[in-house]
Write a structure and sequence with these properties.
The chain is an all-alpha fold and 239 residues long. It contains eight helices and no strands.
Length: 239
Amino acid sequence: MRTFFGYVIDYDNSVTFFSIHHLLYVLFAIFCFIYPLKYHRKIDKFYDQLFKYVLFYGLIIFEIYYHIHNYIGGMISFPLHLSSFGIILSILLIKLYQFERLFHFAFNIGVAGGLTALFFPFSYGFPYYNFRYYHFLIAHGMMIFIPTYHLMRYNFPLSRRYFYIVFSSVVLFIPIIYFINYLLSRLQGNFFHNYWFVSEIPDFVGGLFKSPLLYIFTLVFLYFLILSSIHTIASRYVK
């Protein structure tokens, strides 16, 4: 149990590109997106009773656990990752599902962010016999699943207007996050200072990019591409 819940780094047994672990992450991401699009009525039967409470409190515990686990490993973190934004939006959406504007932000940030994270995983080297391996998988999967299910369950329209609003907001936030990372890097103590992975190129893709500017443009392009793809696919199922 100490190994499972402790701070264990083992790159040989963690998620690397084109490994069996990477395939598992990709398949789970696709399932969390496609299943509620096609079979949301099967979920309706039990969602409003038990399922949404498990998701609501489970995601809260997951987010708190993430920061506690980082602290155990000697690092201080804050909920500033795009994934943290997606998780918080999903938590709010479960309780405040009647607010259409909240849905659009949860869908465009959560689904696109979750798919990006699982298709291009930066897992910090946590192995399959450590809880953080599954934490990463489940948390990002729920970021995809919850807004997609609400899209179908409550007949929210897919809006190109919010597509551009959210995309523009994310792009405009990059310099702000970069500045926050810079401030955190100057503080005494081991503060995490690469939120959104915009200040430092992660090691697992470091060999692909010689220019930080090219790396940032690639991130933005990938986000736009995935965001466009989920709108195209989901629009086939929305009445």
